[in-house]
Amino acid sequence: MDTLIGLLGLILGAAINGLADSLPRSRGLQRPHCRACGAPRPPRAWSSLLGLATGARRCAYCGISQAWRAPILEILAVAGSLWLYHRDPTAGVFWKGLLVSAVLLLIVVTDLEHRLIPHVVTGPAAIAFALLGVFDPSRGPLKTLAGGLVGLGLFYVLYLLGGVFARLVARRRGHPLDEVAFGFGDVTLAGVIGLAVGWPGVLVALVLGILAAGAYSLAYLLVLLIRRRYTAFIPIPYGPFLVLGALIVYFRLWTAVGAGLGA
Fold this sequence. Notes:
2 domains; disordered C terminus; globular; 0% strand; mainly alpha
């Protein structure tokens, strides 16, 4: 069974790679293609790991190698699928966890590479997560929808406050800021996370995400100061930190950490 689950993870990782390459540019599905020249990849290179194994990592047209993100993501997808299956092989739990993980992993990739959280991803994800939560006996419609509304509402307020701050700074500096603390993609992501983890888990997930982003930002700024490369208002993608908080809450990872420490 592990072989089938690993193969499923490989296919899922290849699909996430394809979507991460096409959605930020076209907002639609495209056949796997070279990111440098746009030429279609042969079927044996649709999976980056298969392409590495068969010598098809380089584009046949321009000779540019596929980015290392692709095989790393496929390895993560395989490992994650196996972890999910061994954590709880129950069909309902496994498939729900796989869907949530795949969507959030896709969002992490697009935000890291393009500073973009596509609405074409968060829109269908919101519908899917809402339906999963509504029909989940442990949560139901009230906690599911409350989680989504609270996540969306809290980050919409932060988005508005960030806009006010950006305008004040722009007025003081005499030119607009190129980046703002929160984009509207972060707002929709917070709503999607709320639907995935429900109420009151959404509060824990978002607080963990904000704390993780703050810790990373502080460490990053210290490194820049030490290297004397600091400039004000350096943007960072916020989505990966929100996803981290969401995964910790959704999979109750603090329970696993506590069990490991107590062993």
